[in-house]
Design goal:
The chain is of the alpha/beta class. It is built from nine helices and 14 strands. Helices cover 34% and strands 17% of the residues. Helix 1 packs across helix 6. Bound molecules: pyridoxal-5'-phosphate. InterPro entries: Aminotrans_V_dom (IPR000192), Aminotrans_V_PyrdxlP_BS (IPR020578), Pser_aminoTfrase (IPR022278), PyrdxlP-dep_Trfase (IPR015424), PyrdxlP-dep_Trfase_major (IPR015421), PyrdxlP-dep_Trfase_small (IPR015422).
């Protein structure tokens, strides 16, 4: 039976990306060695990093003066590296979920943190609006897509300060005005690659402004200077990222990804709103994520939770159980999710409704 992968992360990747990675793991560029065996300093590997960096810059229209890094440690390590490198006295944070809350916790170790707005009062099911950002902060930290709760900012905010953004789960899903950001980062396992690599885009001249000493490995300048090769980088996940970036490019770039994302989201939210059994957990339409679509059973049908999960599983749906903080269901629709996959889930919801 065909499986439809709705996992939130690690997530679905295009089949050809997996196949091409598999080929290189068996024999890298006809060298007779596996991609998993070669040195990151092998002459054939440098072009992999170079092309991946160039593709990120090309696809997101990254202006001059920015560096692109591939690091280890996940987005979670960035929560600490960001304030280490950018927070001199005071920073502003938007608290829009668990990940943002974790980022705030780390930032507090380095200076004053102003929480400019929070959606915690309604379990993070909306994106705060009409908040004031103080102009004397070093940056405003934003989480553009809240993977657990299914809220998303669909365009870059207009604020009077520089921004830093955790784009773990909507990176490469829409065009971004990179010039508004001093840093954009995320764990690759949501929409870029397999687990094990973290992408970071940094405005070079935003660095070097904090007065503290920074440990070598946690100092972005170390990695910029060495082109992500200060120590051994995660070679295989970087290769997969390259294959996926090539795939995004040949499929029309981020504009095409954004169009597809909207098409998938309209299809699924349309069914959630129509179907008598279900309701979306995010009520404000413009806040609804195109990447992580969260829904629950209406109260009068709440006892059908397990039955729907079993039914959907029997139809090939994978990974639609909601996060424990939200309950219900979550269908993650990253770049490689097909409209056909979403249609299969919609059919499943319709069929289940007819049975009840
Ligand atoms: C998954 C996720 C993280 C954590 O990523 P790791 O790479 O596992 O540290 C951080 N932020 C967001 C928005 C996420 O979805």
């Amino acid at each position: 039976m065909k499986k439809y992968n709705f996992n939130a992360g690690p997530c679905i990747l295009p089949r050809e990306v997996i196949e091409n990675t598999a080929k290189q793991i068996l024999d890298f560029n006809g060298s007779g060695l596996s991609l998993a065996e070669i040195s990151h300093r092998a002459k054939d590997f440098q072009p992999v990093v170079d092309e991946a960096v160039a593709l990120i810059k090309e696809l997101l229209n990254v202006p001059e003066g920015y560096s692109v890094l591939f690091l280890g440690g996940g987005a979670s390590l960035e929560f600490c590296m960001i304030p280490y490198n950018f927070l001199n006295k005071k920073a502003a944070y938007l608290r829009t979920g668990v990940w943002a809350t974790k980022a705030i916790k780390e930032a507090k170790l380095f200076g004053e943190v102003v929480e400019v707005a929070s959606s915690a009062d309604k379990n993070f099911t909306y994106f705060p609006k009409n908040f004031e950002v103080p102009t004397d902060v070093d940056y405003l930290h934003v989480t553009s897509n809240n993977t657990i709760y299914g809220t998303e900012l669909h365009k870059d905010l207009d604020v009077p300060v520089r921004m830093i953004c955790d784009m773990s789960s909507d990176f490469m899903s829409r065009p971004v005005d990179v010039s508004k950001y001093d840093c954009i980062y995320g764990g690759a396992q949501k929409n870029l690659s397999m687990a094990g690599v973290t992408f970071v885009i940094i405005k070079d001249d935003a660095l070097g402004k904090v007065s503290r000493d920074i440990p070598t490995m946690l100092d972005y300048r170390t990695h910029i200077k060495k082109g992500s090769m200060f120590n051994t980088p995660p070679v295989v996940p970087i290769y997969t990222a390259l294959e996926n970036l090539r795939w995004v490019k040949t499929h029309g770039g981020v504009e095409a990804m954004a169009k597809l994302a909207k098409q998938r989201a309209d299809l699924l939210y349309g069914e959630i709103d129509r179907n008598k059994l279900f309701r979306g957990t995010v009520q404000v339409e413009e806040d609804r994520s195109y990447m992580n679509i969260c829904f629950v059973l209406n109260d009068e049908y709440a006892e059908l939770q397990q039955e729907f999960l079993d039914f959907a599983t029997s139809k090939g749906m994978v990974g639609i159980k909601g996060h424990r903080d939200v309950g219900g269901f979550r269908a993650s629709c990253y770049n490689a999710q097909t409209v056909e996959g979403v249609q299969a889930l919609v059919d499943c919801m319709k069929e289940f409704e007819a049975k009840h």
